Amino acid sequence: MLYFSELTNLHVVTTEGNTLGKLTDFYFLGADQPLITKVIITQSKDTRIIPITKIKTVNASIVVSTDYQTTTTPAENELSIKTHLLNQQIIDIRGNKVVRVNDVAIQQKPYYVVAGVDVGLMGIARWFHGEKIVNSILSKFGKSITSDFLSWDDIQPVELSSGKVVLKHEETKLTRLAPEDLADHLERLSVKNLSKVLDILPTEYETDVIENLNVSRQRALFRTIKPEQSADILSRIDADEAADILLSLSHKRRELILSLLSMETRAPIDYLMQLSKTDIGDLATNEFAKADPEESAGQVKARLKKTAEDYAHLTYVYVVNKKGVLVGVFNLQELIQANNDTPVYKFMTPNVVVISLTTPKEIALKKMIKYKIYALPVISEKRHILGIVALDDLLEKMENTIG
Amino acid sequence: MHLFQTIKHQIIYRWRRLLAIALIVGPGLVTAFADNDAAGISTYTAAAAEYGYTILLIIIPLSVLLGVTQEIGGRIAIIAEKGLGDLIRETYGIRTAVIMFALVFIVNMVVVIMDISGVKAALTLFGLQTNIFLPIILLLLFLVVVLMSYRAIERFFLFIIGFYIMFIISAFLAKPNWNLAVTSLLVPSGAISPAFLYTAIAVIGTTITAWGQFFISSYVKDKRLTTDHLKYNRWEVYLASVLTHMLIFFLMVAVIATLFTNRISVTDAAQAAQAITPFAGDLAGILFGIGLLAGGILGCVIVPLATAYAFSEFFGYSGSLDEDFQQSKPLYVIFLVQLIIGMGVVLLPQVSLFTITIVGNFINGVILPVIFYFLYQFANNERIMGTHKNNTVQNFLLVGAGVSITIASGIGLIGQILSL
Hints:
- The structure holds 2 protein chains of 2 kinds.
- Chain A is an alpha+beta fold.
- Chain A has 3 domains: 2-74 and 105-116, PRC-barrel domain (SH3 type barrels, Roll); 178-277, MgtE N-terminal fold, CATH 1.25.60.10; 282-402, Roll (CBS-domain).
- Chain A has helices at 4-7, 81-84, 121-127, 131-140, 157-160, 173-176, 179-186, 191-200, 203-212, 215-224, 227-236, 239-247, 251-260, 263-275, 297-307, 332-337, 344-347, 361-371, 391-402; strands spanning 2-3, 11-14, 19-29, 36-43, 46-51, 55-58, 62-64, 78-80, 89-91, 97-100, 103-107, 113-118, 149-151, 165-166, 289-291, 316-320, 326-331, 375-379, 385-390.
- In chain A, strands 2, 3, 4, 5, 6, 7 and 8 form a 7-stranded mixed beta sheet that branches.
- The two termini of chain A are 44 Å apart.
- By secondary structure, chain B is an all-alpha fold.
- Chain B has one domain (32-350): Amino acid/polyamine transporter I, CATH 1.20.1740.
- Helix content of chain B is 80%, strand content 0%.
- Chain B has helices at residues 2-24, 27-34, 38-51, 59-80, 84-125, 130-147, 150-162, 165-173, 178-183, 194-207, 210-222, 230-260, 269-280, 282-315, 329-347, 353-379, 382-385, 392-418.
C-alpha cells in the first residue's frame, strides 16, 4: 500500500532517464471502484497528465515508459485526489462533521486504485516524515498506533464531485469500529442484548458483524432470533458462512430455516453443507512464515534466511498484527524487490484470500485457481491464522479421493 | 384612520427590523468586547497611567483597524460558510494547518494565562482565597460552556459585557478633565516619544489579535449567519468596534484622572484598582475590580474557545457549542486543557509570567502578519467570495493594518528584549 503523502513531490523520470518533473496529483474515477487513471506531473509551471498505466516502477523516484501521451484536462468523471479528497471535511449522511482526510491510501495491485483515506494521527505524521518519531515516542509509553483508516466502501463516490466527502452511514460510535472489532465487543453481551444491538445497525454492517462473531455466539444468536429473521440474514451472507452457521444448529432448526430460504439461496448452501463433511484441517500445516506489519523488509529477509529450511512451502509470508489478526500477505518476489528499510505494511497485499476449517476442499481449490495462489491460510472466526493449505497437498488429497 | 394605520405598520416594520438585528447581534459584539479581557485591561491601564491624556490619540485609529479586520473575517465566514481554520486547511494543506494550529495554541495559551491571572488579581482584591475560588470559577466556566446551548452562552457573554459599565461609572467618579479628554482623541496633548510608540504598539497588540480573527469566523459560522445577514453583521462589527473603544476611552480616562494626575505608575489593573481608591473613593476601586473580574472571565471563556474552534476546523472534528460533550469532545477537551494549564501556571509561584508574556507577544507578532496574509488571499479569492470580494478601500486598509502591525510588533519585541 502506498500513501499519497509519500508519492507527492517524488521525481518522475522516463526509462531513458529524462526528468519530467515532480508528481503532484492523481486523477481517479469517482465511482464504487475508484481506479486511478492518470498521474499529474509538474515541472516549474508546466503540467503533464500521463496515463497511470505508463508507470513502470515506484521507488525513490517514479519511472514511466517513454511512449506516454499527455492530456490536458481531466475527463468528465475524473476527480483529483488533491482537490476532491485530500484535506476535505468528511461528513456523515446527516451532515455532521466527522474528521478531515489526512492522507489517501493507494493500492498498487493488481491496478492502481484508491483504497481508502487515512483519518488518524499517522496520516498527519506522515506529511512531516514523523511516523518513526511518533511511533518511537508512543512505544515508550507502551502504545503503538497504526493508521486510522476509512475504507472506500464507507464513502459515497457520487458526492465527491460536488466537493463533499460523505459517509454512507450515520456517524455513531459503533460503526466507527471495524466489524471484527465490534463483533469482539458484542460477543460479551447477552444474546438478547446482542440481537437488540444488531437491529439498530445498518443492514450491510449487521451482516459483516454477524459473519465476524465466533461460532458459539452465532449459534446462540440463530437459536434465539426468529427463523424468518435467521433466513433473512443467511440470505445476505456468503454461502460458506451460511453453511457453517447452519451446521452448528440442531437438525430441526436447520431444516426449519432452510425451508424459509428461496431456492436460489438454498442450493449453494445445501451443496456446501454436503461437502463440509470433509476436513480441511487434515491438510493444513502450521509450517508457514509470519511477519509483523511494522517490521522492515531487511529484518524479514534476514530472519527468513535463517529459518527457511523449517518450512515445507515458503512462497508466502503472512502478516499478522499484534492482536494476532491476519492483516496481509506478500510473496517472496515482493519481498526481494522491496528496499531493506521499507516496512512490511507498505508492500503487503491487504486483501488476503482465506479459507476456514469448514471450507470444502473443492472450494479451496477453486479459490487457488481463480486467484492463482499456491497456498491459502486457514483462519479462525477471529481471523487468527491456524495453518496453511498448499496446492500440491490439496491436489494429492483430491487425486486420492478421485482415485 | 388611514394615517394611524400607516404609522402602525411603520412601527411594526421597524420593530421587526430591530428584532431581526437583535437576533443576529453577537459575534461582532462579543469578539470586540472580549478584546477588553483582563490582559487588555491591564495593558490599557498601564499605558494610561504612564502617558496620560496623550495615549487617547490611538483610540480612533485603533477602532478603525479593529472594525476593518473583524468585518473581513466575519464576511469571509458568512460567504464561504467556513471558518478561517477550514479555509487554511483546505487551501494550504495539512502542514500549514498543523504549524498554524501549534502557533495559535501557544499564543492563545499566553492570553489565557494572563486572563486567569487577571481573575486571580481581582479575587485577591476582594480578599478571596485564590487557591479555592480560582479553581471553582474556572470549573463553573467550563460547565457553562459544556452544558449551555449556543444561545444561552451568548446571553452569558452579553451579561458579562454588561459589567463593563463599571468602568464608565469609575470614569465619572474620578472627575476627569472631560474637555481635555475629548480633544486628546484628535490632538496630541503631549510629546510623542519612542517610548510612547512602544506602549502604543503594546495596546494595538492586545486589541488586534490572532484569536480574534479565528474566533469571529467560527462564531459567525456557529451562529449560522447567511448572506442575508451580511449587512447587519458589517454594521454590528463596526458599531461594536466603536463601542468597545468608547469603553477603553472611559477606562483610560478613569486611570488618567487619578493615577496619571497624581504621578502613580502601575503595571497592571489590580494595582490600579487599589491605587484609584484614595482619589476616586472606595466605590470606584470596587467597580474597577468588578470590571477586571468580568474581563478576566470573558477572556477565560472566549480565548480557549477560539483555540478549540480552530482545532475542530483545522482537523475536521465536530465542534459546536450546541452539541453536547460527547458529540463535540475535541472542542471541549481543548478548552479544558487550556484552562487547566493556565490555572497551573498562575497558581504556581515559581513561574515567571513576565517571560511567558514576552514569548507570547513574540509569537503573536509572527502569526498576525501571516493571518492577515490569509485574510487578504481569501477575501480576494473570487472562487470563495464571489461578488463579495474586498474592494480597494478594504484591501488598502487590510494591507495597511498588516504592514503597520508587523512593523509594530517587530519594534515592540525589540523594545521588550532591550528592556530586559
